[in-house]
Predict the structure.
Amino acid sequence: MKKLLLIAAIAVLGANVNAQEVRFGAKAGYSYSTLKMKEDGKSETSDPLHTFYVGGLVEYKLSDKFALQGELLYSPLGGKMKIQAADPQDPTTFLNFKAKRTLHTLLIPVSAKYFITEGLSVSAGANVGLILSAKEKLTADLGLGPLVELEGDQEVDIKDQVNALNLAPFLGAEYALENGLFFDARYNLGVSNLAKHAEGNGKLTNSFIQVGVGFKFGGN
């Protein structure tokens, strides 16, 4: 009986090992990023920043239905926020500006995947974002059409105003072809407060949508 149990255990283990598969790949795509400000029960969402992401991945398939995936991506995230400031020459007059905030971010998404069919899967996980640098550029809204870039204005470093960690849980879907090409989409919900010097209950978060294409290769 012990020998039979041992043989059965070895057979199950062997089947499990054969079912496991490791694949590496690369991906890139489009990001739709916004900033959301909350304070005193009020919230405001910025205009979007249309940007990109690029990086690599590793997928570890546990069975025909389940897999784990880790990635390393770069993306300049952020948003365009409306700002109203007093005219220094006439304090009773207010000027409208738009501040483009760009958060150059290293993303480390880790997810669990469930395969509905061989090619179609859904995923859930968490995106750990490390903000490498943060810049802000002002444009003037004169109400006469397109925004006007301020003369001589340069991007200002605001890294000391932003927390470095941007944690964003996400849901996604992927469709893969037999040749290794795949298409995916995700919604990442920012939960970390990015405002380093927020007053009271003020909170600044960054959420973003990713839609892209990639290629996987390798496997056991």
In short: The first strand starts at residue 21 and ends at 39. Residues 1-19, 144-148 have pLDDT under 50 and may be disordered. DSSP finds one helix and eleven strands in the chain.
